[in-house]
Amino acid sequence: MYSQLSLKNVRRSLRDYVIYFTTLALIIALIYSFLSLGLSKDIRSLAENMSLLTNGLLFVSILVTLISAFITSYAMNFILTQRKKEFATYMLMGMENHNLLRLFIGESIVIGILAFLIGTGIGSVFSGVLSKLVMSIFAVPYLHQFSFSFPSMVLSFGLFLVMYGLGLFKTAKVLRKTKIIHLLYDHVKNEAYKERSLPRYIVYLLWSVCLIGFSIVLIIKAVTIVSSLAILILLLAVILILLGLYVFYRWLPALLVKLIGRKKQLTYGNNNLVVLGSLRSRINSSGKIIAVIAILLAFSLATMFIGLVMGAGYKINIESEYPYDVTVAIDAYVADFDQVVEYIATKTPVKDHLSYYLYQETSLPVEIMALSDYNLLREQLGLDQKDLVDNQYLIHCEKVYQKEIMEKLARDSSLNINGIQLNSNEKLIFTEPMEQKRMVGTNGYVLVIPDAIAFSLEPSLSRLVVTLATGGEPELRDELNRFIRNQWKPNIQSPTSQPIFKSVTVKAWGIANSLSGFVALSFCGLYLSVVFIVLSCTVLGFEQLASTVRSRRTYSIIRKLGVTDLERRNLILKELSIFFLIPAVLPCILLLVLALGSHKLFAAYILQPNTIPFYTVITLVIFMGIYSVYFAGTYLIYSRAVGNSSA
Fold first, then answer.
1. Which helix (H) or strand (E) holds 519?
2. Phi first, then psi: what are they for 438, rounded to 5°?
3. Contact 611, 313 (CB under 8 A)
4. Which residues does 636 contact at the CB level (< 8 Å), separation at least 6?
């Protein structure tokens, strides 16, 4: 009997369950799809350190489960509040508390099972899309297909039981102790409203603005400090921003309502009194929740932006980190690399190779390179050749150092090497990616001088660059590393007794493992931020729907006073727009401030221009898409509940 009644109640209360059901299905879909991505054998085989993605997604999924448990409990309490009269009627008819509890648990189980099944189906589609995105990042062909992952299904179901079980347990505990009188009269309690003076509101807001402004100053200071102190400063800045956001949103909405209420012409015109009264009630009862939602939205937008920008910037810069197929760097003089080239040829066809030296002049804190070797390296990369005339020298550097070097050249461009005067100018500065911190210099720049002068110096660093016919495989890196460290016995001449630094890089290995870091960072950030946005929108929707009973009476009265249906719909739209807009404004502004600051500080380090503005727009588009869906859903449910009422 109770199972049949549960099913009937679910069908009858679909309106109350829509947002709750949608959120459950979306959370399950996200958990399942990201777990499927992390546990996919095809994805894990892309790079040897792809465990970064798997472990990151598992950790985020557990975090999402614990956070969603609180939202599930909140949603169940909302539904319980909406149906108090119905449950009171059951109790008046003789139903005992434990039977009422069985009825509610039965309904929740039905909703949970349906949400899990639908969410898993949606997640299967999502996982295919995510897998295709990852494969495209690694430039691996992938046929998009609907796939089912049993391990992901089991793990998702376990996390769902934890999330749903915690929420259901807490709500059942409340329902078990509920009395009939509470069910009948809780909804008619008057709201406690405490009026505060205008100066107090202003003081609170000024304090919050000062906290946020000081936090931004601390963040700018932290990114310029190269020490462990920067982490503590960033942590303090984040805490102050969150505190400032809470104070700001705790009192700004109340201040706005108070200021609007003083404008009599605005208050009483165009039926704005209805909207103002509804907002005052919402802010009074949900002020703290709005403040918490603003913090969550700010955190979500910042997380998504940082994850996307850092990941994209990392991906864009990979080519500059690995411009050559194979490189070997020995920080000492080595006569030749013939045996190394022969070993590589046994593993994969060699197209070309170049060995050269970097020289040092005791009076100069920078490596020196011969022009002929420099041009051969440029030839390996398909770059044009450079010439030096009249005892000139050129500088090859990372782009971030270009401005500083130009300023130094403007002050003094002359150098003296072995008694020969050399000169340069800003037209002889080049910044193409050539591994300026390992293969072409060690500090991000190198001096390139005529061969005759360079060859008169003592070589100090030995370098080998190999171009492969097929690009090579990631496994070559470990094989070559073992050969150089264990089997190769070159005649190494070092001026010191310290251990000699040896470095081996293989482009195929480096790109694959660097991309795994990019994927882990971007997808974990996207996962967490999207979940937070969904949960924030859910709470906003429930908070608005909580006023349905009072709003139904209000809109019924103004309808009898002659307000048309179109005007009432416009009032509802205005009311919801303001309520949803308030907690989103400052987080979006903070995102733009973060984007502007990041662009100013880090744009020079990203080889592709406008990367930061592009991903700022992407972040806002994703946020507005999710926000709009929940706004539209809340509007449809709320307008049907209160806009068409005649009683």
1. helix 507-545
2. -150, -55
3. yes
4. none
Residue type, 145: Q
H/E run at residue 274:
helix 272-316
What Å distances lie between residue 54 and 37, 508, 519, 570, CA to CA? 8, 21, 10, 48
Specify the residue for token string 């449910």.
637
Which has the closest alpha carbon to 522: 316, 304, 318? Answer: 304
Q: Do 476 and 343 meet the contact criterion of CB atoms below 8 Å apart? A: no
Q: Residue 326 in contact with residue 277, Cβ under 8 Å? A: no
First-last CA distance in the chain = 33
Q: How does DSSP classify residue 16?
A: H
pLDDT at 372: 93
User: Of 71, 37, 33, which Cα lies nearest the Cα of 54?
Assistant: 37
Token digits for 438? 């390992």
Determine the Cα–Cα distance for residues 516 and 338; give it in Å rounded to an integer.
33
The percent of residues above 70 in pLDDT, for the chain, comes to: 79
- CA trace torsion 131, 136, 139, 143 (10° rounding): 60
pTM to 2 decimal places? 0.73
Residues in the chain: 647
Both tokens assigned to 253:
């909405």
- Given a contact cutoff of 8 angstroms between Cβ atoms, the answer to whether 472 and 300 are in contact is no
Average pLDDT, the chain: 79
Contact 530, 622 (CB under 8 A): yes
The interaxial angle of helices 97-137 and 507-545, nearest 10 deg, is 150
